[in-house]
Amino acid sequence: MGKTDILGLLPDELSDFLVSIGEPKYRGAQLYGWLMKGREFEEMTNLPRSLREKLSEHAELRLPKVEKKLVSAIDGTVKYLFKLIDGECVESVVMRYEHGISICISSEVGCPMGCVFCASTIGGKVRNLTASEMLGQIIVASRDIDERISNVVMMGIGEPLDNYDNTIRFLKLVNEEKGLNIGYRHISLSTCGVVPMIDRLREENLPITLSISLHAAEDEARSAIMPINRKYPLSELMTACRRYFDDSGRRISFEYTLIRGKNDSERDADTLIRLLKKYFTDKGKLVPLHVNLIPVNEVKGRDFSRSDKAAVEKFSGILNSKGVNATVRRRLGADINASCGQLRRESRS
Ligand code: SAH
Description:
Blueprint: E1 4-5, H1 11-20, H2 27-36, H3 49-58, E2 59-60, E3 65-71, E4 78-83, E5 89-97, E6 100-104, E7 108-110, E8 125-128, H4 131-145, E9 151-154, H5 164-175, E10 187-191, H6 195-204, E11 209-213, H7 219-225, H8 228-231, H9 234-248, E12 252-258, H10 266-280, E13 281-282, E14 285-286, E15 289-295, H11 309-321, E16 326-328, H12 342-348
The site of S-adenosyl-L-homocysteine has 17 residues, from strand 10 and strand 12.
């Protein structure tokens, strides 16, 4: 029998596991406390040695190891390259905001979705992350900075809805009261638009924030940069988003990466407004939603560049003047190139 991935267990499951290896149930709370602090078995000093030995024999600890760490001199953003149990690497980024500390985590090693502007998809998908490996990124980062992390965004490497079951388990683990206890309202999940999985997620009734990577507001343009659009075109995506909003009451966030000369003209802004108004109008008014404008990060070996400041401001201005709530994402960690999947790429070459 293989070893049990205990970092991926909820408290009751952990107690059941202890019972299954002949240990008393009450040890569960102690063990869970240590696990959530990112401790190795030998560090769990209030557990009897015999139990720690049994754990090494029957359980595995899928805690990522810090392979590389970059700290921004500008704003304190920390970027980690984490090494997983099989030597594969993923990235996480810790950002400091006035409202607390936020972490951007990865959900897969590589990504199968093929968006042309994204570094994470070069080389395709290697494997899913387990729920424990997603949780481990938060635990290890939090231990490393010695501070509580209060917000989680699933916007790192990978497509969370392509790794659905592990993602849902991860969300439950993060939210667990006895553990990290991060409220669903402090968690965002970003997807390129895997429509059937958006519907499944809606049925889970978890009040997380759904972010949609839109990046273009017409099918032809979107299909040219995001292959998923050929499978699930905008009409299907937007209808699924509307269902999500109607059922959950949660304001959806649309990410729109601005690429110079590709999707950043006045006409593009008008097209985006028209699309949002078509699907999100209720009694003549736009329902609450948010557009997050992201000047694209340039990726080595890919031929596109970021929109200039004037174009970004103009685009944002047009949206806001027509009643569409849009903000430009502040670039954190600019000196450490914090927002790309490029550290992992470099580690492999
Ligand atoms: N697969 C998910 C989550 C990971 S990507 C998704 O597609 O949403 C997180 C966000 O970063 C997405 O909006 C993605 O489109 C965006 N992104 C990818 N490459 C980028 C780049 N080079 N510059 C700016 N944003 C990028």
